[in-house]
Task: structure prediction
Amino acid sequence: MSSSTPSGHGPGVARYTSVSIVLHWLLGLAIFGIFAVGVFMADLPVSPLRLKLYNWHKWAGVMFLALSVLRLLWRITHRPPSLPQAITQAMPTWQVRVHHATLHLMYVLFFAVPLIGWAYSSAAGYPIVLFGQIPLPDFVSPDKALAEMIKPLHELSAFALMGLACLHIAAALKHQWIDHDSLLTRMLPGRG
Result:
């Protein structure tokens, strides 16, 4: 089942579905928001603000994981439009490979980052109580040594996801402002 529809923006440029577009932008904004809060709170002294931000960060991570599941299910059941042939022919082979590798790695990290964070929180002995009301099961048993091993993995995977998101944005802007190939319009809301 194809999710693409002609857009009229550039020759043969097919658009993503409205659901794909909404999930894309929600996850994109979430990546930057959750990352910014994570970096900010990491160096705060122990305080009510730090506790509040840690809880918000964990809740946002769980919601990010849920949105990632929805996005993956939608992508599996609604095939995204392929890169237009004119664009793939104009791109060097290495750019096409980097495009596909970046998207696949981002999908892996959509799941890895929040799951590693959940494991860290559980191992550190701080269970996640979603919105302060819904206790979630521990991902692993409390173990301070394990928490110390997991913590850098969460940080590294979060920085990797942020780096890939920035690379993704840079590539989209290159297509829009340098290549002028209308590729970005496939994912812009209200343009179909």
About this structure: The two ends are 19 Å apart (CA to CA). Residues 18-187 form a domain with the Fumarate Reductase Cytochrome B subunit fold (CATH 1.20.950.20). The chain has one domain: 18-187. The chain has five helices and two strands.
